[in-house]
């Protein structure tokens, strides 16, 4: 979850490192630090807080950070509180080795005891300082080279890591290693860039190598990259990929926050997800990962979808779609629970893993478990070249583009769009879905970008509603059927960025407990599109009103009844029930954004959260 950045070449390293940290700050912002190396040693600065605090501290020092090798880190705290001491980079006892690290060393305490018993002193409470001193200990005890010491040390580590380490005596070199946490190397002309996410060096190079688990790269500004297996030192041939990200995609442009930009990008991102996959005029859906595995999807008796967070909510919608349109039983699992409960998996199972980043640690572990049991694993992912995209048997990219805001928005609707296409395609294969319904849904799906553009026009209404309710401390979100997961997602968005307590429930479950909470101090957001469940939702609204609850209702444009009952209504375009989450979620995203904005919160960088959860 932390952000790693490194540079080795002929340019001044500091501007590259500090600007890279700013682009990586979505991965963690508890503290940050840099180390710039030169022929006489290195300068190291680190501080609690965000990157701008680090920049201010460096500017106050009046020291010119000159050097063509550098590493930097922005931290999401695991071991040790967020303070200056626990911030990265960390140095060894001799002050010779400097390391940055993303991940968790599970057996760090055992290693720490060994180090303390051998005369080492530790300044911080981090597992990273333990790791860099383990490298130094093994290097000195065995008279190893740094490369040999790192390789030997990492065989003793239990857990996950991506590391970059530099020896002050050899500032022209840097060593990178990976197990479980992502790291990429950008290849320039006589220079290397290192980062947790290549968006941090996209302006310098689009040539990138993604390290696989158990690999180590030895970088030297005067030599070619040397890639090896950690376990046996086997030399590997690097595979260079070409990044297809436009620099404009990772800039805010006219928007104050990335989250708002990404909400407003959804008409285009859904169009990108559909492009090349849905031909509306002829009602043809083409998904390469499905076409080449057609028989598996036709013959499977069960699909399990595994995900975390917002992707889990999209998975619940996928369950509804696949069961209704393709008549395949579906189970939806939290990735974090799936791998620990000894699930029943066999070679006839299809496991679908969904992740925006493609680097979610729990989802990757679930994927590995499924493959070890012989299951066919299909991935739905946004980030090209990510670990999940490289590990699945087949899959699709959502093509939502870089999502920088920590609270996911456009990735969610892109995932739903992909799941709709999947369900329609498999249902068509199996001759389950009626041709009239299939054709109608294909036609409507083609119109979704336009309908989302219409739904976005409610922003002014939401601003007014937010001014009324921004001081309330409790929200309840209710939905039925396919819109129940939308209620969960709406509640999650509000919690994530405004820190208002919010819970989502199936509307029918209100009478089984949550109704006890209803009074004039709670706001109830009800998703009430015109569908088969509409009369039941109206009944739920009546029950809330009878107990003086404040009601915000998401309704269709031609709704009459709920329009009269609710305290406030937000109208979205009419659409078939199967596609309705794509429009009903839009006002919930805007509501969360606007509530947080009025409350003065840092919307793109909510406390305690990071964009990509790369540690367990």
Provide structural commentary.
The protein is of the alpha/beta class. It folds into 3 domains: 3-243, 4-Layer Sandwich (Glutamine Phosphoribosylpyrophosphate, subunit 1, domain 1); 250-446, 3-Layer(aba) Sandwich (Rossmann fold); 456-601, Rossmann fold (3-Layer(aba) Sandwich), CATH 3.40.50. Helix content is 36%, strand content 23%. The strands form 5 sheets. An 8-stranded antiparallel beta sheet has the order 3-2-4-1-10-9-11-15, with helices on one face. A 7-stranded antiparallel beta sheet has the order 5-6-7-8-12-13-14. Helix 7 packs parallel to helix 14, helix 7 runs antiparallel to helix 16 and helix 18 runs parallel beside helix 21. The longest helix has 20 residues, at 410-429. The protein is globular and about 80 Å long. The protein starts with a strand and ends in an 18-residue tail after the last helix.
What key attributes describe this structure?
616 residues; alpha/beta; Glutamine Phosphoribosylpyrophosphate, subunit 1, domain 1; Rossmann fold; eight-stranded antiparallel sheet; globular; 3 domains; seven-stranded antiparallel sheet
């Amino acid at each position: 979850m932390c952000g790693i950045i490194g540079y080795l070449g002929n340019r001044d390293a500091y501007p590259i490192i500090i600007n890279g940290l700013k682009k990586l700050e979505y991965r963690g912002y508890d503290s940050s630090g840099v180390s710039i190396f030169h022929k006489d040693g290195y300068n190291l600065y680190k501080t609690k807080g965000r990157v701008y605090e680090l920049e201010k501290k460096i500017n106050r020092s009046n020291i010119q950070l000159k050097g063509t090798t550098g590493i930097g880190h922005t931290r999401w705290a695991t071991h040790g509180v967020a303070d200056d001491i626990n911030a990265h980079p960390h140095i060894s006892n001799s002050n010779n080795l400097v390391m940055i690290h993303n991940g968790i060393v599970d057996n760090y305490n055992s290693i720490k005891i060994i180090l303390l018993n051998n005369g080492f002193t530790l300044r911080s409470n981090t597992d990273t300082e333990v790791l860099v001193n383990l490298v130094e200990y093994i290097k000195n005890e065995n008279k190893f080279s740094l490369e040999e010491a790192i390789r030997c040390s990492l065989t003793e580590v239990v857990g996950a890591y991506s590391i970059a380490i530099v020896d002050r005596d050899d500032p022209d070199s840097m060593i990178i290693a990976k197990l479980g946490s992502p790291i990429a190397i950008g290849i320039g002309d006589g220079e290397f860039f290192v980062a947790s996410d290549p968006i941090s060096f996209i302006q310098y190079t689009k040539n990138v190598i993604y390290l696989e688990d158990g690999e180590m790269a030895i970088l030297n500004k005067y030599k070619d990259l040397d890639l090896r297996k950690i376990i046996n030192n086997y030399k590997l041939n690097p595979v260079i990929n070409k990044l297809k990200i436009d620099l404009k995609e990772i800039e805010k442009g006219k928007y104050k926050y990335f989250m708002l930009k990404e909400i407003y990008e959804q008409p285009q991102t859904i169009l990108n997800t559909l492009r090349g996959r849905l031909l509306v005029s002829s009602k043809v859906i083409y998904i390469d990962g499905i076409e080449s595995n057609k028989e598996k999807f036709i013959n499977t008796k069960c699909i399990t979808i595994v995900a975390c967070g917002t992707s889990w909510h999209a998975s619940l919608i996928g369950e509804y779609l696949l069961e209704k349109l393709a008549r395949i039983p579906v189970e939806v699992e939290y990735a974090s629970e799936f791998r620990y409960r000894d699930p029943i998996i066999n070679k006839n199972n299809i496991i679908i893993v969904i992740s925006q980043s493609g680097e979610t640690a729990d989802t990757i572990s679930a994927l590995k478990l499924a493959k070890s049991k012989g299951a066919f694993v299909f991935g739905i992912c946004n980030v090209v070249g990510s670990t999940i995209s490289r590990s699945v048997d087949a899959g699709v990219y959502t093509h939502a583009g870089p999502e920088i805001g920590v609270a996911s928005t456009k990735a969610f609707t892109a995932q739903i769009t992909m799941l709709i296409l999947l369900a329609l395609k498999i249902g068509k294969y199996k001759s389950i879905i009626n041709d009239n319904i299939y054709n109608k849904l294909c036609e409507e799906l083609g119109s979704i970008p336009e309908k989302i553009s219409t739904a976005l026009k409610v922003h002014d209404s939401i601003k007014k509603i937010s001014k009324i309710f921004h001081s309330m401390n409790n929200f309840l979100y209710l939905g039925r059927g396919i819109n129940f997961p939308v209620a969960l997602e709406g509640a999650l968005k509000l919690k994530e960025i405004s820190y208002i307590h919010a819970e989502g429930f199936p509307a029918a479950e209100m009478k089984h407990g949550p109704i006890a909470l209803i009074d004039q101090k709670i706001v109830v957001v009800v998703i009430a599109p015109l569908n088969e469940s509409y009369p039941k939702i109206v009944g739920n609204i009546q029950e809330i009103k009878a107990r003086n609850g404040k009601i915000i209702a998401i309704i269709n444009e031609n709704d009459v009844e709920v329009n009269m009952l609710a305290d406030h209504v937000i109208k979205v375009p009419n659409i078939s029930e199967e596609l309705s989450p794509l429009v009903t979620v839009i006002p919930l995203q805007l509501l969360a954004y606007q509530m947080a904005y009025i409350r003065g919160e840092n919307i793109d960088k909510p406390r305690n959260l990071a964009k990509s959860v790369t540690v367990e």
